[in-house]
Amino acid sequence: MSTITTAQSLTATLRPWRDFLDPTSLSIPSSLSDATSRISHNLTHYFSNYALVVLLVLFLSLLYHPFSLIVFLLLFAAWLFLFFSRSEPLSLFGFAIDQRLVVGLLGVITVVALIFTSVWLNVVVSILVAAVLVCLHAAFRVTDDLVQDSPYGALLPDSPRGPYSGV
């Protein structure tokens, strides 16, 4: 696989960072149910971006632990090969494996391997920090502009007074 092909497939799984980090799409949710709805929708829509953010926070927490950093970089190569560089689902014995299962297994392997390098406190704190960052971003990022990415976007009304609103 050439470098160009790898880069193209890497960007195919990630949503554009310009959209992900757009400050104009941030607002305070109106209620707790609005916040949980945003979190659910954004976690689904920006799944790969959030996974990379968690890995980045984990990487930054290991900067002063060279052996753990080497272990992390080896595991990150597995992340790149098994998750980020795939434009189609991973298949094993002809069965497609859900990306959430791949991320879950890679996450558990990464955490366990890093705990065995005696940096368990760094790992726990960095995962907690990453979880807070991801939840805050997902709660404050509005989801109104994500409807156009839906395969049903053309069927959805543009306003509440659409063809199926009963008005």
Automatic annotation (TrEMBL):
Keywords: Membrane, Transmembrane, Transmembrane helix, Transport. It is a multi-pass membrane protein. GO terms for cellular component: endoplasmic reticulum; Golgi apparatus; membrane. It is found in: Endomembrane system; Membrane. Belongs to the PRA1 family. May be involved in both secretory and endocytic intracellular trafficking in the endosomal/prevacuolar compartments. This is PRA1 family protein. It comes from Fagus sylvatica (Beechnut). The lineage of its organism: Eukaryota, Viridiplantae, Streptophyta, Embryophyta, Tracheophyta.
